[in-house]
Input
Amino acid sequence: EDKVVQSPLSLVVHEGDTVTLNCSYEVTNFRSLLWYKQEKKAPTFLFMLTSSGIEKKSGRLSSILDKKELFSILNITATQTGDSAVYLCAGGGADGLTFGKGTHLIIQP
Amino acid sequence: GAVVSQHPSRVICKSGTSVKIECRSLDFQATTMFWYRQFPKQSLMLMATSNEGSKATYEQGVEKDKFLINHASLTLSTLTVTSAHPEDSSFYICSASDRVVHEQYFGPGTRLTVT
Output
């Protein structure tokens, strides 16, 4: 059975801090690892990772995949209150996506 | 716990036919189910929200007569794509939420290809 585990489940930090969110996966016929940010209605796509060791960056967010150790991290530097959200990671395999339960990130002013 | 399944995982159909996708919560009662559509490397687009026993609430721009949603029980919701066209080809994902925790648990998705 495919499994994606995210940690921590919840995280509260102060504005300006740097956070690292973790995602480990066991996905049959693994193809890609996706990160989403969910604030209100629908998850917003952040990154898709397919290759190990290559960092993807978008502004203050960055992510990297380790296909040997089967995990990915999402880094957010200089956090802002607008970064408060649930961050989801999903492993893409042959039969679709397996989502983790998400990390609920709260940024305090 | 909190497993959501979708069936089928992949379906190919001819233009003009209808396709039904099932979303089931396997070990909890889903008072609310959400249906999303995703294009490659894009955000999930919320199509509709359905509460058990009541009519679904569709997002703006989503045709309710084309995407029929039924949430007849606390463990099953179905999405029927009626008179499917090639532009309906996409990855459809459902999620389910229970009354207690309010977290969303996502299904694995269904890839629809309309030829």
